[in-house]
Design brief:
Blueprint (H helix, E strand, L loop, with lengths): L1 H33 L2 H36 L9 H22 L1 H10 L3 H34 L2
Helix pairs in contact: 1-2, 1-5, 2-3, 2-4, 2-5, 3-4, 3-5, 4-5
Bound molecules: protoporphyrin IX containing FE.
The site of protoporphyrin IX containing FE has 25 residues, from helix 1, helix 2, helix 3 and helix 5.
Keywords: Membrane, Transmembrane, Transmembrane helix
Organism: Neoroseomonas lacus
Pfam families: CopD (PF05425)
């Protein structure tokens, strides 16, 4: 059971962090180079609609599998180790940022697009970009710390 939780945890982390790297480092610059404002907004609306729908499933799984391992395997906070404490903290921060981005600027962007207000949609998209960028950096650092903590001592 612990192994299953571990595999699920790492798979969900791969989808979350890898998805953010793809969106920020690959898709966004390519969209900027190839598309004008309105088409770019339409593309990014479709991208984040699908990505956030996926993340509403993946993010809870990261937290639940992490807690499952922490409390079922390491028997709670007392017996666990520094990299797990750090991962737990950054995981909660990342989940908070995701929930904020998916509830506030994302809803604002969709409402602005529905109202035909391009500048307001672009402003909301920029807030989404900043939130995803911050989460990507924290996520990559968390993966580095988690793997270092487990195998690097
Ligand atoms: C509530 C939040 C989280 C908790 C309680 C948690 C807990 C855990 C635990 C207990 C392990 C096994 C550790 C070991 O045996 O060494 C683990 C592994 C791992 N976690 Fe998390 N985690 C959380 C969030 C995250 C997040 C947000 C990421 C990445 C963005 C992440 C990345 C990893 C990775 C890469 C591993 C495999 C390396 C390792 O075992 O340390 N975790 N997690």
């Amino acid at each position: 059971m612990a192994t299953l939780l571990y595999v699920a945890h790492v798979l969900c982390v791969v989808v979350w962090v890898g998805g953010m790297v793809f969106a920020m480092a690959v898709l966004r610059p390519a969209a900027h180079a190839a598309l004008e404002g309105p088409q770019r907004l339409a593309l990014m609306e479709g991208v984040f609609r699908r990505f956030f729908r996926l993340l509403w499933h993946v993010v809870p799984l990261v937290l639940l599998s992490g807690w499952g391992m922490l409390f079922g395997w390491y028997w709670g906070f007392g017996a666990s180790i520094w990299h797990v404490h750090l991962m737990h903290t950054t995981g909660l921060v990342m989940a908070g940022i995701f929930v904020f981005v998916a509830l506030v600027p994302w809803r604002r962007m969709r409402a602005a697009l529905a109202a035909g207000n391009g500048p307001a949609a672009a402003a909301a998209l920029d807030t989404i970009r900043k939130g995803v960028l911050v989460n990507m950096v924290i996520g990559l650092a968390t993966v580095a710390v988690a793997t270092w903590g487990r195998f690097g001592g």
